[in-house]
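Example 5.3 — NADH-ubiquinone oxidoreductase chain 2
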Amino acid sequence: MVFFTFSCFLGCSSWFLFWVIFELFGWVFLVFFGKTSESFFLSANLWKIFFFQFLSSSVFLLSFCMSGNHMYDSPFLGLFFMLGVLMKLGVPPFHGWVIQVSENLPISSFFFFNFLQKVGPSLIFIHYLDLTVQIFGLVFLLMVGSVGGWNLFSIHRFMVYSSIMNMGWIFATFHVSKLLFFNYLFCYCFVFWVFFQWLSESSYSNMNFPASLPSEFSSKIIFLFFVLNIMGVPPVWLFFLKFFTIKSLIFEGFFLMSVFVLLFTTIFSYMYLCLFSCQLFSKLDFHKKKNVKPLLFCLFFSSGMILYFSFF
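Solution (predicted structure tokens):
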């Protein structure tokens, strides 16, 4: 069902079909959340998701009905439409409810809620808004995501702000090429999916740092690998995508955009470095035996991507 809705988003050219898919996509995730945890289904978080999904879809539909296919002629309707999309994305200034909901989500639902659900609204944000609005939204996302992630000790909250900041990278890749956009989106979602699967299987899904970081040697190495990959530092996978994005932005004439992307990413790297240092200098435990297959998979997959992008 999820892949079907993704295909509809990519092949859709009518605003009404966009709205229908919005509603369909929202109901898919509501059903998924309800089946993941019975206690969550009875909590107020589910109603928060339903309320904001319904409100954002209503704003989206109302803006199109009022514009009559002339949205670009009315700055007010364009702003009204943008607010609906930002609310659907759960990004600033409408990210407070996402943080509250994500705090109590299981790690599997957290991935779908903060990553896969944002694909459709991201495509609409790029297709229906002009370049000036897109650049403003990109800088705003990078700024709030980089500053808001400071001094957070919950892995859920930290990843929410990390996803907000990386939305700026995703929007930036679209100005280079659609192929790079989908490559970055796929790689970014895949890295986080593997990371969350490892957290869930290792019982680290509700950890707070630095109090409850992994202490086993193999878990430490895997955790440090994922932190480096999310940071986008060499020689891991996402570094090559970010490097190619910055290089392409400069060649395409978006020099100022590349400066903002690098600046706010560097600011947010402070929190990555804090997380990295807490894990690096924490106590080691060599007595607990963990499965090293995820470690071998991570190292092999990283080296394979390095070779791939070396010939890209």
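Remark. The radius of gyration is 20 Å.
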